[in-house]
Amino acid sequence: MTSRGAFRENSVNGAKYMTAPNIAAVHAFMARPSGADGGGAAPARSLAYLEPVCGALGIAFEDLVFSEQVHGSAVLLVDEQTDAEHSAGQPGGIDALITAARGRALAVFTADCVPILLYDPPSGAVGAVHAGWRGTAADIAGAAAAAMVREFGCAPGDMRAAVGPCISRCCFETDGDVADAMASLFPGGGAERSGVVRRAGDKFRVDLKAANAALLERAGLGRANIAVSDECTRCLSDKYWSHRASPGGHGLQAAIIAPAPPRRHTA
Ligand SMILES: [Zn+2]
Q1: Which residues surround ligand 1, an ion (CB under 5 A)?
Q2: Which residue of 97, 204, 261, 266 sits 20 to 30 Å from the alpha carbon of 80, by its own alpha carbon?
Q3: What's the CATH number of domain 2-165+222-257, 3.30.70.1130, 3.60.140.10, 3.40.50.2300, 1.10.287.90?
Q4: What is the mean pLDDT of residues 76-94?
């Protein structure tokens, strides 16, 4: 095992995945399939891709509920009755999932977009979020945290968040529309002050990791309880799928998490 920032790299049967230091629930930020190219990769939602890591983590493939990503801000509460089709199946699309149901696990899929995993130690409840720039602009991360507060009685100050590997400011050059969307999230110049947006000539560089960390802080999470991966999917396109590195053909990697036993009586 090696360490990338505070995240740890793990490997099982050639499949790599990262784990965050502050999430005690079973979870993984998976890498792309080893040796896969754009045309020959196993689909992200397939048993072939997910099973090695799920097997190592003790998650049954049939327990996984998948997002139906549309770059929106809808959050689905997953329970024991959520369908067995491995899909949230919501007509409007679902970019974030939350659950406290043992025997369920959550999966979101990304290739440069931001995967965020949430965990509440007292209840054991978890969340999984897919946030591209549009989802970030819609504060999907804050919506998922708020849904955990509402549905499971979580105290935001107890909650942990891990912002996983995604395109970083080094590589996320944008036009003004994205910069404007981030600026509107942080009125009064906060986007610049917090390093979310920097001007680079007539383009902008946007830090989606910093934006989502700031949104989670605004939702009440403590800064010390938010871990941020230092990995950029475009810089590390041998390890991760990156839309910007191979716009014509790429797969998606999964971020998965399962609820943990409650820790109501621990400090
Ligand atoms: Zn980069």
Answers
A1: 168, 170-171, 232, 234-235
A2: 266
A3: 3.60.140.10
A4: 73
